[in-house]
Amino acid sequence: MKQFIKEETPLLVGIITAGFFLGGGARWLEAGTSLWLYIPLSLWLLGIVTWSAFCVVRHSDALAIKLGDPYGTLILTLSVITLEVVVISSVMLTGEPNPTMARDTMFAVVMLVMNGLVGITLLLGGWKYHIQNFNLEGVKAYLVVIIPLALLCLVLPNFTMTGSKGALTTGQEWVLILISIALYGIFLLVQTNSHSHFFIDSDHEDHEEHHGILHSNLYHTLLLLAYLVIVILLAKKLAIPIEFTVSTLGAPHALGGFVVACLILSPEAAGAIKAALGNQLQRSMNIYFGSVLATIALTVPAVLLIGTLTGQQVILGLSAADMVLLATSLLVCHVSFASGRTNVLYGATHLVLFVVYLMLMFEH
Questions:
Q1: Which of 19, 109, 184, 250 stands the most exposed, by the fewest C-beta atoms within 10 Å?
Q2: Closest CA relative to residue 242, chosen from 13, 49, 56
Q3: What is the rounded distance in angstroms from the CA atom of residue 203 to the CA atom of residue 194?
Q4: What phi, psi does 133 have (nearest 5°)?
Q5: DSSP labels for 24-76?
């Protein structure tokens, strides 16, 4: 029992925190509360949600070691996307309706991963090893699904004949939901069955590290679900300070999506950068591109369904400048990962695009 408490202290702290906020503590996050109390409570809530998210990844990594790739990376990706859907849904259902929240978060994930995190990873890995190799077929499998889904979900809605620019009709939404789920399902079949070797780098065998005692699959599965429940319970409360901060600062609504994306992706980013520094670039790319693909293919259906059930309008179409940036990012990714080898130049180029994204966010 002592060993369990020592290993799973975040779970106990998370349960206590959830009890506090669900038991009436959330009233201290409402407007009118003194900033001396509001700020510490908000930071505490943010810290517990982030800590619990890292624990989700910790138990996902343990299952990854026991099950091996590609199943390990897949478990990690699906766990993080579950967190994403939960947080986005909570923000959508909190405060004033924000029809662009889901779009802004998805676009932030795409830019943060494909330009920011990929750029940092390639830059650090290239600086240390000069040239890094990866399994070309695996990255091509990701991109061949990411490119059409990104354009269909985030660009096409601007050019459909609907009453509101960037939105879809109910029929178009259902077609997009079915297409997204079907393509992702086929991808999973390829990744886990017929072509699983595409996602393993035989030259740099992936050996995941897990700092802790490995237990049974059931143990890690139950703990993973327990931490997910903590995040789910606290996500709606976290949405309150996020919305309050964005509105108080007069910041663009896209900043809320960017904050959510950073929160969700922080555990994955730490693992992927560490893998690249260990010359396991294929594992990094599996994590990054798996996140982008799952974000588009699974989050879009989820938010469209939530919008339909709650009567909220969901706007998916990007602005003209963001559409250009998205198309440029997809094109650069296609070039960067066309040879199976990367270096620091590719990383620097992706980081430039990420800086442009940050600039555009505050100039819209």
A1: 250
A2: 49
A3: 21
A4: -110, 155
A5: TGGGGGSTTS-HHHHHHHHHHHHHHHHHHHHHHHHHHHHHHHHH-TTHHHHHH
Residue 21 structure tokens: 């906020």
CA distances from 202 to 130, 134, 142 (A): 19, 9, 18
State yes or no: pLDDT of 35 exceeds 70.
yes
The Cα 4–Cα 2 span in angstroms is: 5
Q: Are strands 341-342 and 132-133 parallel, antiparallel or unpaired?
A: antiparallel
Q: Global pTM?
A: 0.79
Question: pLDDT (tens digit, 9 = 90+) per residue, 286-313?
Answer: 888 988 898 889 888 888 888 888 788 8
**Phi, psi of 314, rounded to the nearest 5 degrees:** -115, 115
Nearest CA among 316, 285, 294 for reference residue 201: 285
Report the C-alpha gap between 350 and 110 in whole angstroms: 12
Contact 270, 121 (CB under 8 A): no
Question: What's the sign of the alpha-carbon dihedral 262, 263, 265, 269?
Answer: positive
Question: Count of residues for the chain?
Answer: 364
Question: Which pLDDT band holds residue 94 (cuts at 50, 70, 90)?
Answer: low
Please name each of the domains of the chain with its CATH number.
Answer: 2-361 (1.20.1420.30)
